[in-house]
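User: Predict the complex.
Assistant: Input components as received:
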Amino acid sequence: MKALSLVNLRKVYGDTMAVDGVSFHVDYGQVVGLLGPNGAGKTTIINMILSVLEPTAGMIRIENCDTVSQRRRALERTNFAAVYAPLPGNLTVYQNLRVFGLIYGVCDLAARIEEVLEKFDIAQFRNTKCGVLSSGEQTRVGLAKALLNRPRLLLLDEPTASLDPATARDIRTTIRRFVADETVGILWTSHNMAEVESVCDRVLFLSRGRVLLEGDPRTLPADYGRDNLEELFIAVAREPLTLGGNGR
Amino acid sequence: MMRTRPIAAILLRRFYLVRTSPARLLPLFVWSAVDIVLWGFITRYLNVVTAPQIDFVGVLVGAVLFWNFFTRVMFGVTTTFLEDVWSRNFLNLFATPLSIAEYLTGLVISSIATSTIGLAVMLVLAVALFGLPFLVFGLALIPFLLVLFLFGIALGVFAIAMVLRYGPAAEWFAWPIPAVLSPFAAVFYPVAILPTWMQYVARLLPPSYVFESMRAILADAPLVWTDLLWAFSLAGLHILLACGLFIRVYRHAVRTGLLARYTAETIN
């Protein structure tokens, strides 16, 4: 069983093809990087996985649950964190975690809240309203919410974008430990190629709504004649058509 | 099947917000209380300057009380929804296993709690200060409040469907809805006073039957229970239509990407 399977996923807005026949999967114990320039379709794919955007065609299965016909079961097994979706700033950290814990049906919620507060070192902000936290602290609260229901599929859209390097490293370590300890697969988007190289087991390069390249982030640049992942990223962004026949 | 914990989460969130925020707590009853006091004194004045056999307390203060109850119910639904709009919480909320039925149920129960506070305050003021003969309505009170409650829920759901469809700024469509409807609902005067075309509209609005019945009771005229039954049926129909509209708008928002990028407002 896979944490996530996408089959021939498409999204069309009028004349614009935002996602064009994307297929991939995420195995348990694996962190898959979804990379690509702005507008490549990364967030559109994440929104479709989260069922807040309806695909034009294709199929999404989260742990064998179809996101259309078994939406609730699929989303019970999923969670996400994104810089553009902070938790409501007018509730405290604890209140937010309690509300979302109830929605996700988390068992032994009080104990689980304590665990995630400790895990992300935010216990001291328990009674602080999220709106007055720094962006880095808010990101950690968002990640705590994302791990609250012990998801089988975790979607992280630029999770360390607003964090200082030291905190970002701690977060990466925490999430890698979470992958090692739990039965979970992670889909991770980031524009920080060093981070992707250190965290992801596999990467997918998106360009204009299609998966252009796929492979191990540590070996993929050499396969396509580039020195590192960042150069490969720039090549994908600037000259995607030249990459099709270069590698392997 | 609906689950209770997600519904409890919607209620808990509202409780957390109201508990610590005077800006949220006071509007639950202050405007209604002001209306009762204002109309109470107007009524006293009218009782002094008009014929002694006419008592305006029941007709005017009673009407204000019932109409305010209806508006509190409606705003109870819309305000709980707007909290998610104001805090940009749609993505967090709708990317969870929460179903639309659970969400709407949470909004309705939240509205029951908040509108009950407003009703209680209005009752105390109207009875204690102005002698509203509330008990004269007897058993008819039950259908009165039920019809107004159901119609308030229907309009609340209709209003949030509009806000979801047209974006955050569309909340300004929601607030004036009761004021726009009040001339047609015959709150302070009989439906027969209205021009014919307005009477047709009034007949489609469940509150008009409540206010007609209220005046009938105060005038010692016979109460037409079938009218209240019709009003109840109409209110049920309005709820079905409003929920149908909300689900349709929600699906449109999911299909077009409006839900994921809600603040953009312009996605068609």
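The CA atoms of residues 84 and 192 of chain B lie 42 Å apart.
Let me know if you want any component modeled separately.
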